[in-house]
Amino acid sequence: MHAEPTRILPISFSGPMVLALQDRCKTVTRRLSSSPLARLQPGDLLWVREAIRISGINVRPGRLVFSYEADGREREVPWPKRLAKPLPGPRIPRFMPREISRLTLRVIHVHTERLQQIEERECYDEGIGATQQLQAAGGDPRRAFSVLWDELHDKPGERWADNPEVVAIRFACVRQGVDTLIPGLGHGGVR
Description:
The protein is of the alpha+beta class. 18% of the residues lie in helices and 28% in strands.
């Protein structure tokens, strides 16, 4: 029996990064050091938020039919209490309820560094090999990572050229929602 995690927090990923997590080619993520994730410790759990699409067809009372945008996989579940309006259409990751999360990251190691300290092999650990940026960057993983970073961080002080302080989070990906990993967590407690 292992110790319970200190914290359970959400973390959002784009569709290509969700696929990289599923394929186990993404084992690290970098976030700005100003992020609440900068305080993570080994053993903490991150439940993955991703974009979903709620179906307008086949919606039954008390049930949610949706698909994950990353791979189109469809599911039907009891309606999550935290999901307000049953309108069909896409939902961005920040509105995805924890109950329908399908991936959990168990934090292994956390350290702080400057963004541009990333090494070539770490770019692959970031999942860059699963993106089209690598080919567009002529096979240069650091260049590809910098392009991907700048697509997500366009504010002054956050861009690649600004070399911000980041937290590098190494994790093991578990292909289960956090609610199924920790009995009793269910629809209640947010830790």
